[in-house]
Design goal:
Number of strands of chain B: 9
Structural class of chain B: alpha/beta
Number of helices of chain A: 11
Number of domains of chain A: 1
CATH class of chain A: Alpha Beta
Structural class of chain A: alpha/beta
Largest sheet of chain B: 5 strands, parallel
Number of helices of chain B: 10
Helix content of chain A: 40-55%
Number of strands of chain A: 9
Strand content of chain B: 5-15%
Shape of chain B: globular
CATH architecture of chain A: Alpha-Beta Barrel
Oligomer: heterodimer
CATH superfamily of chain B: Glycoside hydrolase/deacetylase
CATH architecture of chain B: Alpha-Beta Barrel
Shape of chain A: globular
Largest sheet of chain A: 5 strands, parallel
Largest interface: A-B, 52 and 58 residues
Order of helices and strands of chain A: EHEHHEHEHEEEHHEHHEHH
CATH class of chain B: Alpha Beta
Radius of gyration of chain A: 19 Å
Order of helices and strands of chain B: EHEHHEHEHEEEHHEHHEH
Radius of gyration of chain B: 20 Å
Distance between the termini of chain B: 53 Å
């Protein structure tokens, strides 16, 4: 049955809430989340959503995504290295099986591996609980195998969820979800057992929604990133903020966008009260210092 | 609610690609290539000259530039036709005045309808490459292989007959391919294809009859994307195209020769208020020095000789 609302969080006013203090007096936790993805040429059909905009084989769509792995990833990584920005990788875990060199490069850099499902062409829609649990277990084992890390974060494959997803993530020990866009700060998520939080990702300064969906030139995109940063940096003096820069190597790694990507990284890393963090580090800090105070403040409002 | 069991099985989860058409390759791990005259960037201008029938009813998806209004759609038909009367002439003149070469992807029905366009292409020494029958013939989805074979054979035969050229390149209408397209075009003597937008350089693909090569043709930097879909201004086109060129030029200093593909639709780039943007990017690129203007066949030959 469709629900009227997600039922995953309660209300908390923006200017009347506990204060987040990041390490070393930083105003802003900045994290960069490239989606390192594998789209299949001939995926099985999901009844809720077609795999490709064009009939299979969608050569244009498939090869565009493949650009990210042959070319864009490497160009993006080089620029991030230059600016000392670590990646928190939204990973289709099967990509590591296909391209072990990419997995190794990310592991060598100690980038965080978090889940973006198995393939970006395998949606969670219409999975039963056992199937979704099996998918989560597969991802968890794959992240361990390829990175040595315990899986902490989750952005559903192609942002496809079920009503069970958040409970199953908490059950599996996942610490944070990125599929909720209701706030600029991390928030507790209501789950049946254990604890889960939402960490801000972004569909506003995501390279896909801006550069491909939103009719934003590369220069407009850099301006949007700077404006997002400036306002959060300013507000962070009052209460610690999070800024995520979600990327796709097949988009940001194009030759006609690299200059603007470099300009954005140059701008952000040129500020001193910025914590260059990973999603896991943000979540860990929040659990250790903020979760209980936020949960109490939310409970005290009794929902509204 | 649940999904069929095969939704959670992954038969192609293995090292490399999930198909046999080409091998994975990291662009930055390859042997650098050297272009003639030690040029840094090979400039590949790719005008795309298409016939959009007014009664088209394409199967699979609507190609960009197709009809979208109730018949008779004079609006869209004549705007596309404008490109093949006026727009292409402006683009050809801009290329001629700069002594540049080009590869021209052409619908075979356009070649039949407008001999002047073929004659001009030959007069300027431009390479003609296959572009299917017309924009109503998309190589997509459930197209029966015998039908597709006929489209490939007839469109290539027509271009060869009318131009006298060998026609060894191919760019499908709206980047459309079936699982059989590579095999069918290779069997008809096509040596390179520019529909797979996954690389900045040529790479080897596998067809049933032997190898065929992919040539770079990123759709995101075409006039179709920038002017057609995004409605950006000419000055913004100039910025983005020059960003592309300058990045490739910079990389060439470290990683060897690169290719700048400039894909132009005459109904978009050949209009009076945009042609100056095309001339500007050509002049700025040529102003860098170390730019080699060549056809797709020439670029591929130089690349293959070094593999």
């Amino acid at each position: 049955m469709p629900k009227e609302e997600p039922g995953l969080y309660d209300y908390l006013p923006y200017y009347d809430r506990p204060r987040i203090e990041w390490p070393n007096g930083a105003r802003l936790a900045f994290w960069c989340a490239p989606n390192v993805e594998f789209y299949e040429l001939n995926p099985p059909a999901n009844p809720s959503r077609p795999s490709w905009p064009r009939p299979v084989p969608d050569v244009q769509g498939y090869s565009w995504r493949d650009y990210g792995n042959r070319v864009g990833f490497w160009r993006m990584m080089e620029a991030m290295d230059r600016y000392g920005v670590r990646g928190s990788i939204s990973l289709n875990v099967a990509l590591c099986d296909h391209f072990p060199d990419i997995a190794a490069a990310m592991r060598e850099r100690n980038w965080e591996f978090f889940s973006h499902g198995i393939y970006n062409t395998r949606y969670t829609y219409q999975m039963d609980e056992a199937q979704e649990r099996a998918m989560i277990a597969d991802v968890k084992a794959s992240v361990k195998k390829w990175s040595g890390q315990d899986l902490a974060g989750w952005l559903a494959p192609a942002l496809t969820n079920t009503d069970n997803t958040m409970d199953l993530l908490a059950e599996a020990g996942v610490k944070y979800t990125l599929d909720l866009f209701h706030d600029d700060q991390p928030m507790p998520v209501k789950v049946k057992q254990g604890r889960l939080i939402s960490v801000p990702y972004s569909l506003e300064i995501n390279d896909f929604t801006t550069l491909f969906q939103g009719n934003c030139t590369p220069r407009d995109y850099t301006d949007a990133i700077k404006a997002q940063f400036d306002r959060l940096y300013q507000e962070g003096a009052e209460n610690g903020q999070v800024m995520c820069l979600p990327l796709h190597p097949y988009l940001i790694g194009q030759p006609h966008r690299m200059k603007q990507f470099e300009a954005a990284l140059d701008y952000i890393t040129g500020h001193d009260k910025v914590w260059l963090a990973t999603g896991r580090e943000i979540a860990d800090h929040y659990y250790a210092h903020c979760y209980d105070r936020f949960a109490a403040a939310i409970a005290a409002r009794k929902g509204g | 609610m649940s999904l069929p069991a095969d939704y959670l099985t992954y038969p192609y989860r293995r090292p490399g690609m999930d198909h046999e058409r080409y091998a994975y390759s990291n662009l930055f791990q390859r042997k650098p290539v050297t272009w003639p005259g030690n040029a840094r960037v090979a400039l590949w201008v790719l005008p795309v000259l298409e016939f959009f029938p007014m009664d088209m009813a394409p199967k699979g998806f609507r190609p960009p530039g197709g009809m979208e209004r109730p018949a008779p759609d004079y609006w869209n038909y004549t705007l596309r036709d404008y490109g093949n009367r006026v727009g292409f002439a402006r683009i050809y003149r801009a290329l001629e005045r700069r002594g540049l070469k080009a590869s021209v992807a052409m619908s075979s029905r356009l070649a039949e309808r407008y001999p002047h366009v073929v004659a001009e292409t030959n007069r300027l020494g431009f390479e003609l490459i296959g572009h299917g029958v017309d924009m109503n013939h998309l190589h997509t989805g459930a197209l029966p292989v015998e039908e597709e074979r006929e489209w490939v054979k007839s469109s290539l035969a027509t271009l060869r007959r009318l131009s006298g050229q060998a026609v060894t390149g191919w760019h499908s209408p709206a980047y459309s391919q079936t699982h059989a397209t590579l095999d069918l075009i290779a069997a008809e003597g096509v040596q390179y294809v520019s529909d797979w937008v996954n690389d900045d350089m040529p790479y080897r693909m596998q067809a049933k009859s032997g190898p065929i090569h992919s040539m770079p043709n990123a759709f995101e930097i075409t006039d179709m994307q920038i002017f057609g879909f995004f409605k950006y201004k000419p000055a913004q086109f100039v910025e983005q195209v020059m960003d592309q060129f300058e990045l490739l030029y910079r990389e060439a200093g470290k990683h060897g020769g690169r290719i700048m593909t400039l894909s132009l639709r005459p109904w978009l780039s050949g209009v009076p208020h945009r042609i100056a943007a095309i001339e500007t990017v050509l002049d700025r690129m040529l102003g860098h020095g170390g730019v080699w203007s060549a056809t797709g066949a020439e670029i591929l030959a130089a690349w293959k000789a070094q593999q």
